[in-house]
Amino acid sequence: MTQEEYNNLSARIIGCAIAVHRQLGPGLFESAYQACLAHELKRAGMKVQEQVQLPIIYDENRIPKSYSIDMLIEDVIVLEIKSEEELSHLHLAQTLTYLKIGDYRLGLLLNFNVRSMKDGIQRLVYRF
């Protein structure tokens, strides 16, 4: 996938997140936003996987189901869904860890507990 294709796909995902936020607003649990966003993304024709399990390798041992990605879109973009008053550096670290462990290039950290969704979007690049 080219960088332009990643950019186009992430723009479509962000458009769907904005649509969900416009309809629901802030203040709900992450699970509600995730379910509605999954519906919106599927309706837009995207492949959506939820709660994707990732193993970690520790001391040369594969430990299955160590991490769970909230959503994986088109097998290439990681979505981490939050509904927090404020995101911390740990939320960023968590998403970057998912990118690294899964060998993904791009992730979106989406915080729906904001007045305007554009303030709740962080695009994280692991490698290009």
Keywords for this entry:
alpha+beta; five-stranded mixed β-sheet; about 130 residues; 5 strands
What would your notes on this structure say?
By secondary structure, the chain is of the alpha+beta class. It has one domain. 39% of the residues lie in helices and 32% in strands. β1 (48-58) and β2 (61-73) form a beta hairpin. 27% of the residues are buried.
What is the strand and helix layout of this fold?
Layout: H1 3-24, H2 30-43, E1 48-58, E2 61-73, E3 77-82, H3 89-102, E4 106-111, E5 121-125
Parallel strand pairs: 3-4
Antiparallel strand pairs: 1-2, 2-3, 4-5
Helix pairs in contact: 1-2
In a nutshell, what does this entry contain?
This protein has 128 residues and is of the alpha+beta class. The chain has helices spanning 3-24, 30-43, 89-102, and strands spanning 48-58, 61-73, 77-82, 106-111, 121-125.
